[in-house]
Amino acid sequence: MGYKALYRVYRPRTFDEVAGQEHITDVLKMQIKKNLISHAYIFAGPRGTGKTSTARIFANAVNCLDPQNGNPCLKCDICLSAAADNMIDIVEMDAASNNGVDDIRDLREKVSMLPVIGRYRVYILDEAHMLSPGAVNALLKTLEEPPPHVVFILATTELRKIPRTILSRCQLFDFKRISVPEIEKRLMEVAEKAKVSYEKEAIAMLARAGEGAMRDALSMMDMCMAGGKKLTAAIVARTLGTADTEGMKTLGDAVLKNDAKETLLVLSAMLAEGGEPGNILRDTITELSGRLSAAGEEIAREILRALEVLIYSQSTLKYSNTPDIVLETALLRAALPETATDFKDLGVRLSSIERRLDALEEAPVPAKERPAPKKEDRQQTAKDEQAHRKAEVLKEAVKDEPADDESDDLEQQMIKMFGKDKVVIKD
User: How does pLDDT run across 27-46, given as a tens digit for each residue?
Assistant: First the structure.
């Protein structure tokens, strides 16, 4: 027998094993326990979140001879047949390749057949949004008045493409993206069952890279293992072209400290080690957004400004022929507030200046090599030194902006700097 991917070998077989979709599995279990089975369902949500797996579990459970708290028992003949993928009363169709009128007409003729060994014939239509208009019309009558022994489950990643005439005839369940902790938990369970040693950092990196899709995370884990029995952060970083947690923390620190040189050095090292620009950008966004909850008001503003720059750059990087340069430019803009030309960023720039001025207030003034002055003279000299240094900071901050000698009004200053048609000042 050929090799089977991890996500196929360790596919959930009961509702309790489906990760992150309790709001759906609890309802389905209750329907099975109370024998309130509907004739048609739509399972909608992002890829890799358990739609098809849940559909298979449901098809198994409604036919199970001895269901346990709404779950299939996994021991009876029907459960064993379902586990071996030869349960004749469970029919899976790929609507992407069987989306014509003739395909649905053939299905309509078959639904009249009674189940062979179970109570229900369950039809699972994957990628149901791919059905042609003619196929949808052919399916409508069957969905509206199906035989009592038939259950339809339509799975889709594009709910907006499902016609309202179909939606109104089905119970709709929305699958959500799976959280990183839930993916981590499942990956560790799979690693232990597969007798694979792992580093927690490697599991965390895979969970983040999965972006809410359990199947994607398991597929990447499979790729990183490559048949081996060891999973390390170094292997994951090299295979996926991502940076480890410590590297992302260093990069995030450099950006928030407005240290352009350090930002470029860290980024260059990541790219030299095989980091993929799209992954680095995504992980930088994740790293910075994770700091928001614990950040003070001023730092939070700085983080939000940097995130706005980086998120905006994602679409540009995706279609660029020079992704390295796009990434480098985005990180530099995020690290240097003074490069921003948008009026709403001026507040962040002023806050940065204020922090530097506050630091000057607290910093000791270096002594001059001169005879010791009187006490009053020393105090006055210190004040003069600090005033001079503050003036230098302010001069540096606005050296590239034209001065306004005629008016202190903010709006008039902005008009002179940028032009009247580019200035919008909001309350």
Answer: 999 999 999 999 999 999 99
Question: Terminus-to-terminus CA distance in the chain, angstroms?
Answer: 69
SS (H, E, C) 29-48: HHHHHCCCCCCEEEEECCCC
Q: Strand order in 90-94's β-sheet?
A: 90-94, 121-126, 150-156, 40-44, 171-174
The Cα–Cα gap between 149 and 119 comes to 7
- The predicted model scores a pTM of 0.70
What stretch of H or E contains 93?
strand 90-94
The number of CA neighbours under 13 Å toward the Cβ of 310 is 28
How far are the Cα atoms of 179, 204, 401 from residue 404, in angstroms, in the given order? Answer: 52, 53, 9
Cα–Cα distance between 179 and 192 in angstroms, integer? 20
SS (H, E, C) 231-288: ECHHHHHHHHCCCCHHHHHHHHHHHHCCCHHHHHHHHHHHHHCCCCHHHHHHHHHHHH
Cα 302 from Cα 296, distance rounded (Å): 10
- Dist. CA 413–CA 404, nearest whole Å: 6
Q: Which CATH number fits the domain that encloses residue 187?
A: 1.10.8.60
Q: DSSP H helical segments within 290-409, as ranges?
A: 297-318, 323-335, 346-362, 375-397
Distance CA 129, CA 139 (A): 13
* DSSP tally for the chain: helices H, then strands E: 19, 7
Residue 332 belongs to what domain range? Answer: 245-339
Q: List phi, psi (to 5°) of 151.
A: -130, 130
- Number of structural domains, the chain? 3
User: How confident is the model over 114-164, as pLDDT tens digits?
Assistant: 888 889 999 999 988 888 888 888 788 788 878 889 999 999 999 999 989
Q: What CATH number should be reported for the domain holding residue 156?
A: 3.40.50.300
* Burial (CB count within 10 angstroms: exposed 0-12, middle 13-18, buried 19+), residue 56: buried
Cβ contact 118:112 at 8 Å: no
Interior/surface letters 190-214, b for 16+ CB within 10 angstroms, e for the rest: bbeebebebeebbbbbbbbbbbbbb
In-domain check, residue 312: yes
